[in-house]
Amino acid sequence: MKKILMAGVMLLALTALLARAQMPFGSVAEQEYGRALWNALQSANLVGENHIMAWPYEGNAPHGDKLVTLESEITLNGQRGTVLVKHNYGPDVTLEQVSNDPGAYLVATTVMFKREGYSAANQDWFFAKYLADATYDVAPDGATPLVGSPTGCVTCHSNAPGEDMVFLNNKY
Ligand code: HEC
Question: Is there a contact between 124 and 154 (Cβ–Cβ < 8 Å)?
Fold first, then answer.
């Protein structure tokens, strides 16, 4: 009886571990936070129709063909923090076309918000990728929303110079 119980406990622990390994991001809480983040970005005019625009530049994979990166600060749930917003445009457009009509070519918006106390392993960066209609893009499994600490974002951004997970500069 004891052995069966032990086996049961181990199986449960294993299932929990596997579940964690398969879904380290995109939890309901992270999705809700990501929605609040989008709303805060919209209020700050950093996303949405008529968002603040800057000169687009030539991008590289995995970010879009043409990019605009904005750096600012927002307050979310009473926490003030840096936010980096990257608008990804494409696929086959000129810088001028993007500049003239950004809304027509927006493919996705990737965001990093410095959320104090969120995750020491991520240096508190909360990641999210929104499609042009503001819904979440999903992981290669076709279902898990890219919000929170998506493995792809975290793995690649861990290689950014300055060990701050940011490529743009080394201030953080
Ligand atoms: C394979 C590497 C790679 C992956 C995966 C990746 N990025 Fe990036 N990211 C970069 C590089 C390189 C830059 C800087 C160059 C540029 O402007 O594209 C960048 C820039 C950014 C920036 C502007 C701040 C900065 O670091 O310069 C944000 C915001 C961002 N990425 C968000 C994301 C999010 C969210 C994801 C996941 C959905 C993601 N990235 C996945 C490589 C990656």
Answer: no
